[in-house]
Amino acid sequence: MDEKTAVETLTPIADLQSIKSTGTNPAAPQERKSWKERVAFLKDRNFWKVFFLGQVLSLCITGTNVVTTKLSNDYGVAAPTTQTFLVYACLAIVYNSYAIYKRGIRGWLLQFWRRGIFYFILGFVDVEGNYFVVKSFQYTSMLSAMLLDCWSTPVCMILSFLFLKVRYRWVQYLGVFIALCGLGMLVASDVITGRNYAAADAVKGDLFCLLGATLYGISNVSEEFLARKHPLYEVIGMFTFFATFINLVQLMILERNEFSSLVGQPEAVGMIVVYTVCMFVLYSLAPVMFRLGSAVLYNLSILTSDFYGLIFGLGLFGYSVTVMYPFAYVIIIIGIAIYHIFPAPVPVMGSFDKETAEAERRQLFGLPANDVEQQQHVIEEGTTFDESPKSEYASRQ
């Protein structure tokens, strides 16, 4: 018996499949990696892409928070549904127009027919998540709202574990915990400097924030799932299409009188335009982040938005700085880096590539899955073996 036969005899079938696919035997003792090998991700281009993309998204969120604060404090405008309506409308117009350009009217309508219900649910969840989180700040303290809003990160991890079959290492959990500790330092610094305010109805506000954070987590994981299976122009365009109408109905019911507060205040209208630009960039890049990283990593990255908010607040709102802020920022970044010590876990479905795109296109238009099935389909429709090569040669000419 040669060596190869002996290995196959003693090794289970599952392990043989692992050996053939990876070239390593999982039963063999694993060599411990040095710290130099563990931090090798710092030389990885993908890590830095994800890192800087996450900070761009964090800055976008900072911009929306600053604009919302200015609208409330300086112009007396407090209308979360009114603000987001223009965002959803612009996204729907731009990305659905591009989808029609790429796939034609028939392909665009097929998206509605085959997957419209999923995008309707996603749009509804996203609209209500935005509404409840913003609304919670009117009832609970800023300290409670910021801490409870972080609930979206563990929600993403739980949902990714259950539905996307993502399996995390203990290092990933540690990285999330450290990043959340950094955010806790930021909140504690706000309390020390007196930036926190009393709660008008703490129970109601806390429940609103927990509900909104949960909806955020559901929305992020659902969008990641769809972004890994379908083109981004379809995902963004379809769910914002439904979100626009859901938002409009909610606006007419809850905020009909808020339009009057914008009359005669062109500066406030300009603020809403800035808010729309920030949110447009955020919603356009977030699915890219989901593909390169994950919904969990997205939520980790945007924890730094409070630090950036302080920088803007120094000049706009007279905020003061404590020593804890720069340390907290560094701790959040360390948490994100620790999350990457081991390769970031990827859902079992993988990422969106050319093969996935082609399979998705064929499935959408009801075409055979591959060329062999295409040829068989043509034969079954009455084309002879002699006719097929001739027509192919003629088309090439």
From TrEMBL:
Task: List GO terms (cellular component aspect).
Answer: membrane
Task: Please give the Pfam families that the UniProt record associates with this protein.
Answer: SLC35F (PF06027)
Transmembrane ranges, per UniProt, are 47-69, 75-95, 116-133, 139-164, 171-192, 198-219, 231-253, 268-290, 297-317, 323-342
Q: What compartments host this protein?
A: Membrane
Q: What topology in the membrane does the UniProt record assign? A: Multi-pass membrane protein
Q: What keywords would UniProt list here?
A: Membrane, Transmembrane, Transmembrane helix, Transport
GO molecular-function term, one example from the UniProt record: transmembrane transporter activity
Could you name the domain of life of the organism this protein comes from?
Eukaryota
InterPro entries recorded: EmrE-like, SLC35_F1/F2/F6, SLC35F_Transporter
Which PANTHER family does this one have? Answer: DUF914-RELATED, SOLUTE CARRIER FAMILY 35 MEMBER F2
What's the family? Answer: Belongs to the SLC35F solute transporter family.
- Name of the protein in its database record: Solute carrier family 35 member SLC35F1/F2/F6
* Source organism: Absidia repens
